[in-house]
Amino acid sequence: MASAAQAVKKGTAEFAKDVLAGLSSSPRYLSSKYFYDEKGDAIFRQIMQLDEYYLTRCELEIFQRQTGELNLLLSEAGSQPFQLIELGAGDGSKTKVLIRELLRKGASFKYVPIDISAHAVEELMSSLRTEFPSLDAEGIADDYFEVLNLFDHHSRKVVLFMGANIGNYRYDEASRFIKKIADALNPGDILVIGFDLKKDPARILAAYNDKKGVTRNFNLNLLERINRELGGNFDPGKFIHYPLYDPVSGEARSYIISACDQQVRIDALDMSFQFSQWEPIHTEVSKKYSLQEVRQLAEENGFSVKKNLFDEKENFVDSVWTK
Ligand code: AVJ
User: Fold this and answer.
1) Cα–Cα distance between 235 and 224 in angstroms, integer?
2) Could you give the CA distance from residue 308 to residue 297 in angstroms, rounded to a whole number?
3) pLDDT at 10
4) In this predicted structure, what is the pLDDT of residue 271?
5) With 0-12 CB in 10 A as exposed, 13-18 as middle and 19+ as buried, what is 9?
6) pLDDT digit string, tens, across residues 102-120
7) Burial class (CB in 10 A: 0-12, 13-18, 19+), 153
8) Is 85 a residue whose pLDDT tops 90?
9) Does the Cβ of 258 fall within 6 Å of ligand 1?
10) 13: pLDDT strictly greater than 50
């Protein structure tokens, strides 16, 4: 039975609270999780098509060329029914490749896609109903951090955390998050996790600084979202998109920089904020990994790396871990 995605959209209250905290702090920041409203989802779909943005194509290649291998790994863990839980499912395009194969093999499983974007979950659930009428699926619209504790502790689980979404955390935060996943799993359960790998810094930077300015629009949509949902009066034309890549930490970071001295009013907070010329607001981390860091992240949190699945050029890895 495919139940409709319960789009439990958390009110704007939480958004307002986080915006207040980020803009009151020094240096200022806004969380990248707020990129993904309906408009942000649409811009992200454009990003995935960009020549410079290699990540999605690499991971799709892994899923298409190694579905057999992946399936084998998932089925080795036992033939009992399992829950296929996806953190940050997005449009599910890669996972559908896997779902098709699992259904063809007659595997018994329930698909639970979770995404921060209520809109994305609704679209995914409706496309699943048409493409896979027999699939048992339940979508959840929430911060995936929040839902890990809600999982049924007795069922066998395969958790998918793909798309390099782990990259949005710095290493230490990522490690704490992986620990939380480990705590929600039983021995033998599986985590499939996608990492963008360290490579030519120029290529990494270009992926976040595309020529058409799509990533710029994505970053500045955060200000527009504040305008739409919180009654802000940001003029995006007075802010600059500024990405950089630090090859030591492996962090690609994005900032929004105020191009002039300016004041911005946010009605929902009943406050105005003063921005100095060239003042940055930090908005995103997209961390790139070495294979050694991938292994360390697994092992320090009670997982072992069962197999690394690469695209042909080894730009990206989907690492299959067992607890
Ligand atoms: C969806 C988090 C993997 O960090 O590469 C794309 C988001 N930001 N371009 C990434 C993103 C700017 C993306 N993730």
Assistant:
1) 8
2) 14
3) 56
4) 98
5) exposed
6) 898 888 999 999 998 888 8
7) exposed
8) yes
9) no
10) yes
**Interatomic CA distance for residues 95 and 173, integer angstroms:** 25
Contact yes or no for 309/62 (Cβ under 8 A): yes
Among the ranges given (5-14, 25-34, 107-116), the one the predictor scored with the smallest mean pLDDT: 5-14
Q: What is the 3-state secondary structure (H, E, C) of 169-236?
A: CCHHHHHHHHHHHHHCCCCCCEEEEEEEECCCHHHHHHHCCCCCCHHHHHHHHHHHHHHHHHCECCCH
Q: Please give the backbone phi and psi of residue 219, each rounded to the nearest 5 degrees, phi first.
A: -65, -50
In angstroms, what is the C-alpha Rg of the chain? 20
Probe target for ligand 1 pocket from 212, 216, 284, with the most ligand atoms within 8 Å of CB: 284
Peptide bond into 27 cis (omega under 30): yes
**203 alpha carbon – ligand 1 mean position (Å):** 14
Note the pLDDT of residue 244.
98
Do β-strands 28-29 and 156-161 pair in parallel, antiparallel, or remain unpaired?
unpaired
Any atom of ligand 1 within 6 Å of the Cβ of 252? no
Angle between the 214-230 and 12-24 helix axes, to the nearest 10 degrees?
Answer: 110
In this structure, the residue with its CA closest to atom 1 of ligand 1 is 165
For ligand 1, is residue 35 a contact (CB within 6 Å)? no
Q: Is residue 71 within 8 Å of residue 101, measured between CB atoms?
A: yes
Decide: 221 in ligand 1 pocket, CB within 6 A: no
Bin 142: left if φ > 0, else alpha if -120 < ψ < 50, else beta: beta
Confirm or reject: Cβ of 116 under 6 Å from ligand 1.
Answer: no
Give the pLDDT of residue 154: 84
